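check these tokens.
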Amino acid sequence: MKNIPKMIAVSILVAIASLINLELLESNFVVSAGVIFLVIFLYYFEDISPIPFGIISGTMVFLLRLAVHQIMFGNVNAQVVDSYMPEIIFYAVYAIFFMLFLENNRKNNLGFVFIVFIISDFASNLFELFVRYIILGDTHLLEVIPTLLVVSVIRSSVVWMVLTALYYYNLMLTKKEHEDRYKRLLLLTSQLKTEMYWIEKNMVNLEKLMGQSNELYENINDNLGRDKWADKTFIITEDIKEIKKYNSLVIRGIKDITEKELKDSGMEYKDIISILSEMMKIEAKSCNKNIVYEFDSGNNFYTSKHYYLISVLRNLILNSMDSIRKSEKNGKISVIHQEDEQQHIFKVTDNGSGIEEEYEDKIFTPGFSTKISNETGVVCRGIGLSIVHYIVEEQFNGEIELNSKSGIGTTVVFRVPKKSI
């Protein structure tokens, strides 16, 4: 069972909240605020197993009630134990209803959630009521059933309002975060534009240098102007030094910009997948391709190398997209994450055109490409998979393999040590 310390900690909070309670009529039946905290924790902590959490919370409530009774009245007898013990049933049953109706299913539909809360609350109270009736034989308990329905509506309304408030608060925080990132992106873009100016200037200098080199080559080949060969060689060498200096400044400038402006220290994998999912769906729509995406994020993890991981996955997905023709009606790309004790395993699979066997050994080579634009006839740059290969092996200390069959599809698997990512 995972996250037992966390489960126990939040169960203690539920038990403390249960001390805020109301005793109904002349019976020993008590309604408390503990379930409000139980539901909120169940809703937000997806890594907590509902049923064990419900049982532990109910047990904590039971033990705390006994402790308070001991402090206030000085003794705990069998009748007191029988009176408090059925509360464990309430919390356990509520957790079961939550798991059946809401776990990973329609949790974002707050209207549906509200109805489920009412049903779960009322049904759990009925179960507890039945157990109390069996144990205590108290006929007064049946009189509180109509009141329980009202309590269920009120208590579920409180939970619903809290969750709604938290939902809109998170939306506000997300909006502000997106605005801040957008501002940083604008600043980053403007700074990169400046660096691009120097890159363009270097391109002009390189063209001049190529002209001078060709002229020197022709003079040497034709044995013309021998006395000027040394001077021209010196000039070309100095120009190369200048271009190298400019390139060093540009690289340093880009590094400074990205390190200062991209201040995100890291990101959770589920957020990376969320971003990629939206990005790729938009990309497929813009290319007029009918592609179904399957993203299985597996166990979530945090990484400080999120930009590298996004780059790898994005390039692999784009490569898969390119292999699926516009005419295909059943294009599918799946991105699956698994793990073992030592490493993360990522698998990107498509049902595209595949790769010819003769090209598989060259596919990660810089500049190699089999893609040609049908509109322009221009061969693609062929740097995407070489970047993927570099990042996986050099930045992640991992390994990558490709399995492809022409006309059937391609699967790329890369494995990364957990300590590297």
Observations:
- The CA atoms of residues 14 and 34 lie 5 Å apart.
- The longest strand covers residues 331-339.
- Confidence is low (pLDDT under 50) at residues 373-382.
